[in-house]
Write a structure and sequence with these properties.
2 domains, alpha+beta, 6 helices, globular, 17-stranded mixed beta sheet, Diaminopimelate Epimerase, Chain A, domain 1
């Protein structure tokens, strides 16, 4: 089977995107899952990516509605992926000009992408920035009955030499996200490679995403923002994680004096994203850039 694809990245978190016929959707999903790790390999025998987003469109669906499967680079299925969905939405808007509001008579440039049975509303924002931004309705922050038990086990998995976290949180946004907050002098990049895989493998939870965060206080020159590094389930270290940024903002923001019109900024090694949220239990909006890298085709 010939697979035509485009490679995109959101804050250098990169993904391979490809549309397949709805009639052979199940066949493509099974085949792609088996060869995802080789396709995403960066060792010289693959395209190289943090994941694959396979998508299709039902014959009777509105032209603004799509189905998608999100695969981590090891072939495991992800329930949500903020950067990957931004890339897919940007690709769809660029690939089909009919999706823009002037062509369809809509009030906004909006499409819907269904992943794991959940509808994700995606919007195109044009401004005076260097490039368009894509906004994703990420959903609401969730929890589970095991959260407290899992949080109590975190310290048992930490190396003796690891610095003490100021606070530890666990939140769900399709997938589980463990957020550890540290002081400003903590070497996050070095630490994530040490504790990321240990926490991911040592906790009784199916593939937790691990995020280390520093809160930078507001000053006259700069608003408050979070610095974050991530070790993702099924991928390892990545340059950015949109879902993790969304969870971090929802868990760590002080909403007492927060202006919902002001974005919560999360800076990651690959770039920054904006999070919009009214309250801890409110819907989370993720906004940021997406960039096309190249396109091609391979034989699956």
């Amino acid at each position: 089977m010939i697979f035509k694809f485009q490679k995109w990245h959101g804050c250098t978190n990169d993904f391979i995107l490809g549309k397949v016929p709805y009639a052979s959707w199940d066949t493509w999903k099974d085949s792609m899952q088996q060869c995802t790790s080789q396709i995403c390999s960066r060792s010289g025998n693959g395209i190289g990516a943090d994941g694959i987003l396979l998508y299709t469109q039902k014959p009777d669906a509105p032209e603004t509605s799509f189905e998608a499967l999100i695969l981590n680079s090891d072939g495991s299925i992800a329930q949500n992926c903020g950067n990957g969905l931004r890339c897919l939405a940007a690709h769809l808007f660029a690939d089909d000009p009919r999706l823009l509001n002037k062509m369809l008579g809509r009030d906004q440039n909006t499409i819907s992408i269904h992943t794991a049975g959940i509808e994700r509303i995606c919007s195109l924002y044009r401004s005076d920035r260097e490039q368009d931004h894509i906004q994703i309705m990420m959903g609401h922050l969730g929890n589970s009955s095991q959260d407290q038990e899992i949080l109590q086990l975190v310290n048992t998995q930490m190396p003796d030499t690891a610095p003490q976290a100021l606070a530890t949180h666990l939140g769900w946004l399709g997938n589980p996200h463990l957020v550890l907050e540290y002081s400003t002098d903590t070497p996050l990049h070095q630490l994530i490679h040490t504790i990321g895989p240990r926490l991911q493998e040592g906790l009784p939870i199916d593939g937790v995403n691990v995020h280390l965060v520093i809160r930078h206080e507001e000053s006259i020159q700069n608003p408050e923002y979070f610095e974050m590094v991530s070790w993702e389930r099924g991928a390892g270290f990545t340059q950015a994680c949109g879902s993790g940024a969304s969870v971090t903002a929802a868990l760590l923001t002080d909403f007492t004096f927060h202006d919902p019109e002001t974005p919560i900024l999360v800076h990651m090694p690959g770039g920054k994203v904006e999070i919009y949220i009214d309250e801890p239990d409110g819907p989370i909006l993720l906004r940021g850039p997406a960039t096309k890298v190249f396109e091609g085709q391979i034989n699956i």
